[in-house]
Design brief:
By secondary structure, this protein is an alpha/beta fold. It is built from 15 helices and 14 strands. It has a seven-stranded parallel β-sheet with strand order 3-2-1-4-5-6-7, with helices on both faces. About 0% of the residues have low confidence.
């Protein structure tokens, strides 16, 4: 029986959580679908099948944001011809620029199915502060409604698209997957709850070094801690590396805070840590929190827009999400306000002091991660892509 053809369109497979999800799709849907991978840039960091069909759409990539915007309709027409030539009935795109390109397909008269995947809190990303962001906001409003379906990785993101951008189309929520078997087997994760003692107490954060992830908040909070022996590991790379290095020196924390270059698989570091800290200003559905749950880590996270509450406080409706001004003792971690170093420092101290709280989270966090195991999430993607 012939497999259904699917085109997956993304910028590249380099560095981010969305790229990791696409890598997982490529490695787990090939037995069911005939997948054509279309990249804007020929950069592949994650593992993909050895026989994966790859097409590079943008032959002359540029770092100029306005040139890239002007090229969108031309790349869209090239993509349209590619789909026709290969008789591909489904386009599945990820990230804004590929989504804009796919959004043009219907305008060209394409009869196939257009599926966009939105994986960040869009209104926070496009704040209209710059001309580029204003254009991006306009394109979301005009092109996203052209899709037959938008797949979001949190209900909060769907709500944002509907209310802020008035994108009224069909939606589906599919959360990010995590490969629990790989975590458990590849790294021989056999430690039992209660056997995690380490000196010094290690907080770890994983994410790109940029304004959105706000690692400066963690460093500032660390500067307020003085009563116990701790270390902080910040794992990632990005444009703020030098700025963060200078801030660490300025706060005199060179012996306590370490920047570690980005790794595609941070599990080895996570299983040796004592507590995971996420300091983002907004998120999509953070893979790093899934990995922290799978590694039985207690978690402290900012109560930011996106999928954090859906992951750590599933019993609370997203309608109840609001800026809090204190520590929230959630089902699977502590929530703190965004951009508040004092309360973050208090939560870090609380987690260190309260061994019972640590063990409570360690015992139940892995079970929470099971809801997002690759076997569960891949079934959701297969059902979606099989739909006519």
């Amino acid at each position: 029986m012939n497999k259904k053809k699917i085109s997956i369109l993304i910028v590249s497979l380099y560095g981010g959580g969305t790229e990791r999800v696409v890598s997982i799709l490529l490695n787990n849907l090939g037995d069911t679908f005939d997948i054509y991978l279309v990249l804007l840039q020929p950069i592949i960091e994650y593992d993909i099948p050895a026989n994966q069909k790859i097409t590079i759409l943008d032959k002359y990539p540029s770092d100029n944001i306005f040139l890239n915007i002007l090229k969108i309709p031309f790349l869209a027409f090239r993509y349209y011809r590619f789909l026709l030539k290969n008789n591909i009935p489904v386009s599945f795109s990820f990230l804004n620029r590929p989504n804009f390109i796919a959004g043009f397909l219907k305008l060209f008269g394409w009869k196939g199915k257009v599926i966009l995947s939105e994986r960040t809190f869009t209104s926070a990303y496009y704040t209209t502060k710059t001309p580029g962001e204003r254009i991006g906001r306009f394109l979301v409003k005009k092109l996203y409604p052209q899709a037959d379906l938008i797949v979001c990785n949190s209900r909060n993101i769907e709500e944002d698209l509907r209310k802020v951008f008035n994108v009224q189309t069909n939606y589906s929520i599919i959360y990010n997957p995590i490969n629990l078997a790989k975590i458990n087997e590849s790294f021989h994760f056999k430690r039992e709850p209660g056997n995690y003692a380490s000196k010094p107490f290690t907080f770890i954060s994983v994410g790109r070094l940029n304004q959105i992830k706000n690692h400066a908040l963690l460093i500032k909070a660390a500067s307020l801690l003085s009563d116990f022996d701790f270390r902080i590991q910040i794992v990632g790379k990005g444009e703020l590396k030098k700025t963060l290095e200078d801030y660490i020196v300025a706060t005199g924390l060179q012996e306590r805070v370490t920047l570690i270059d980005h790794t595609t698989n941070p599990i080895e570091l996570l299983i040796k840590a004592d507590c995971f800290v996420l300091t983002s200003n907004f998120e999509g559905f953070p893979n790093v929190l899934l990995e922290a749950l799978a590694c039985r880590l207690p978690i402290i996270s900012t109560d930011c827009k996106g999928g954090v509450r859906e992951l750590l406080v599933p019993s609370i409706s997203i309608d109840n999400t609001s800026a809090n001004s204190e520590i929230i003792y959630a089902e699977y971690g502590l929530l703190v306000p965004i951009c508040n170093a004092e309360i973050l420092a208090a939560a870090m101290t609380c987690m260190y002091d309260n061994t019972a709280l640590q063990q409570s989270y360690r015992k139940k966090n892995y079970n929470r991660a099971k809801n997002f195991d690759i076997s569960v999430i891949m079934n959701s993607f297969k059902e979606l892509l099989h739909q006519k």
